[in-house]
Design brief:
The protein has 427 residues and is mainly alpha-helical. The protein has 20 helices and no strands.
Length: 427
């Protein structure tokens, strides 16, 4: 049985068992014991193993990607294509979200007393997120791209700063071309190869970890909150589905020259990992492995586009931010005209780039946008109960967008490519 099949079985088994436990044993003491001492630790160990590899993988992948691209002109061309891809696809995503929320108007379907009750239940966390909005600023995000101390940036998990440092290292290594530089590049290649081997070992644990993560989440979530916020959840899921199952396949077929069926089959391990971890950063090791081996994207393109995309290309996050802001505006009765909604579109695009690629990383950005338009940022407590589920879904769209972008940009650089190998051949 292939790894993909075992991951899918773990995914389904964890979801079904978690929902069953929530329905039939929600008040049983043993359920808390199982989730706290078995399911959560198994899932957290898997996440920690993946996060452990992110910094060395990001640094080595970007340095090697820049070196393999070669001359600065080619680097600028691929970088320009990546930037255009991020802006274009994120604009499409946010536009879909804004259209959907204006058509369905989910914020007008929740009675004020029910909304107040839901927010009261998540009061402490909502207050903390709202208070942290002042820490998020576009200028600060821009300045933080250049790290004062790259080691401290790596220790704090500041991927954007690590990426900038790695890009500068790669460009300098390409320009110098000395014997010492070649030795350094060989050492970086060794780090990358070691990371790939470690990823291979970690991914073997994925079926068990996926089952544990999904069991823990679904056992705690249940149906009660979903029913109360059904229109909001439905609006977000519908918009994400349109972007993922309609926009991405069109882009793949027209610009990438690849069958969507072949893409989704090859990308399955990364998409399942994204769903279970809710983190683009934690999924990055799997994304790189799948993009190169299962989708057949040239290494130099995959390393560059996927690594940058893990932080900068957040289609699903931008879409979710736009829907959430308008949803809360509708709930609190704040009317926003077309110009204000266009401003929200731009802010969501920029905010998604600055959002951390970890679970819940977009919430402080949403709180900042709410405050800018006179919407009570504490209203974010209204969606905290369902945020984990929606975070899992939007992370799938984020990671999928990275891989689709790699396929499209890879084809534009390499011309018509051979069909990618079957996933089983890559495992």
């Amino acid at each position: 049985m292939s790894l993909h099949t075992r991951m899918l079985i773990g995914f389904v088994a964890g979801t079904v068992l978690g929902l069953a436990a929530n329905i039939f044993a929600a008040d049983a003491g043993w359920l808390d014991v199982v989730t706290t001492y078995v399911a959560d630790p198994v899932g957290q160990v898997f996440l920690r193993l993946l996060f452990m590899l992110v910094i060395p993988l990001v640094f080595s992948a970007l340095v090697l990607g820049v070196v393999e691209i070669g001359d600065p002109q080619s680097l600028g061309r691929i970088g320009g294509k990546t930037l255009v891809w991020i802006l274009a696809v994120t604009t499409i995503a946010v536009t879909i979200g804004l259209v959907m929320v204006n058509l369905i108007r989910p914020g007008q379907g929740i009675p004020p007393e029910l909304g107040a009750e839901i927010m009261a239940g998540a009061g402490d966390r909502a207050t903390q997120i709202a208070a942290g909005r002042e820490q998020v600023s576009g200028l600060q995000v821009l300045l933080n791209i250049v790290p004062r101390n790259p080691v401290a940036a790596a220790a704090n998990g500041d991927l954007i700063a690590v990426m900038f440092f790695a890009l500068m290292f790669g460009v300098a290594a390409t320009v110098i071309r000395s014997d010492g530089t070649r030795s350094f590049v060989s050492a970086v290649q060794g780090v990358y190869d070691i990371c790939l081997k470690l990823i291979d070992w970690v991914i073997r644990l994925a079926p068990w970890a996926v089952a544990a993560l999904l069991f823990s989440i679904t056992a705690k979530l249940g149906f009660d909150v979903l029913v109360q916020l059904a229109r909001f959840v439905g609006t977000v899921l519908a918009a994400l589905a349109i972007h993922f199952f309609i926009v991405f396949p069109i882009l793949l077929r027209v610009f990438g020259g690849m069958s969507p069926v072949v893409f989704f089959r090859g990308a399955q391990p990364a998409l399942l990992t994204a769903f279970s971890t809710s983190s683009s950063s934690a999924t990055l090791p799997t994304t790189l492995k799948v993009t190169e081996e299962a989708l057949g994207v040239p290494r130099r393109v995959a390393r560059f586009v996927c690594t940058l995309g893990a932080t900068a290309n957040m289609n699903g996050t931008a879409l979710f931010e736009g829907i959430t802001v308008l949803f809360l505006a509708q709930f609190f009765g704040v009317e926003l005209n077309l110009v204000q909604q266009a401003m929200i579109l731009v802010l969501c695009m920029l905010g998604s780039i600055g959002a951390a690629g970890v679970p819940g990383g977009s919430l402080p950005v949403i709180a900042m946008i709410l405050a800018m338009f006179g919407i009570p940022p504490e209203g974010i407590g209204l969606i905290l109960g369902v945020d984990r589920l929606l975070d899992m879904c939007r992370t799938v769209v984020n990671v999928g967008g990275d891989m689709v972008g790699s396929v499209v940009i890879g084809r534009s650089e390499e011309g018509v490519r051979e069909s990618p190998p079957e996933p089983a051949a890559a495992g």
